[in-house]
Known about the structure:
The protein is an alpha+beta fold and 426 residues long.
Amino acid sequence: MIDIRAIRETPDAVRAALARRHPDLADRVQAARRLDQRRRELLVEVERLKALRNTQSAEVARRKKAGEGADALLGELKTLSDRIKAFDAETADVDRGLEEILLQLPNPPLPDVPTGDASANAVLRTWGAPAEFAVPPRPHWDLGQALGLFDLPTGAKIAGSGFPLFTGAGARLVRALANFMLDLHTREHGYLEVQPPLLVNADSARGTGQLPDHEQNMYVTADGFYLIPTAEVPVTNIHRDDLLTADALPIGYAACTPCFRREAGAHGKDTRGLIRVHQFDKVELVRLTRPEDSPAEHERLLGHAEEVLRRLGLTYRVVLLATGDLGFASAKTYDLEVWAPGVGAWLEVSSASTFTDFQARRANIRYRPAAGAKPAHVHTLNASALAFPRTIIALLEAGQQPDGSVLLPAALHPYLGVERLTPGGR
């Protein structure tokens, strides 16, 4: 949530920043500013009326004690009380309207984020060289079927399109990736592993910005719980309404969970194979930090996600997203994209984002900078490290061999017990 003080004190700067996302957002900033001004006017008037009521109440008490008539003053007090109630009701309406606007305003992008739509995304660097093949490489859906790794038709029979069923060595590969990534992040990168709930309440979804912006893309139960679209939601909310100490920061969590997203495969785009699915597993990293450390923490987080790809030997590139491609709550995002030779495309496997204090304001996550100091909001960051389906796509398509097997990276050998996937392997 944007700090209302920024809208109040530097409205032009906020309007200009949000206009880089979408021109219409400037009007919402102006509407929020008007409501904030009205709210402050109402509060001043209510305080004035309450002070007058207190004075007159004291005078009524004095007159009654002295045996003097107070009927006229009692009538005035009734009128004052009615006016105060009316102003309180209007203030509540204004508060609701202001909160509704603030909840719908996205995070202003940081100054170094490129302006524009996805075509303005900037490729910062590339690691590794794409594998070369004597014949055109096969796509992962052919490889997965031939190797018995997943059964997409049966998954669709069980739940619907976009819900893959992994089988045999494919299921073991999913488990191996989870163990490999969690071991790396907890043993070498210092994260605390957590296993959070897969359902969250509305307060948690609102705290990280999924509500109200992404509600249409979430699965909701009959009793109002939401299936998590990412572990970012429950893990960040571990500290909702907490007041942390400065020496507790930074805090880093790692979690491996299923993720559920309605929008996957929308409009028939990228629906074949594992490219876009409704349910998938992902290791998520979440960091909470002091504001002054936030830029360095963002780079560190990105590096942790990159290290997974380097250990897996996958060719990837780092992309800085432009304003029109940013997520609602993000102030700056790096995407990591792997090269998948079978489909001939760069596929996103991670987004490493800083949210500045945007989520912390919504979730009320604060820390005390020093003893006796006024509490301040932390900065929150997260990254996928990594999402499994497209990582599996790249592993299969880049590691395919002429004999139909898939050579696995050395980092996975201890977790799978084999160096390659072969037809009939279990």
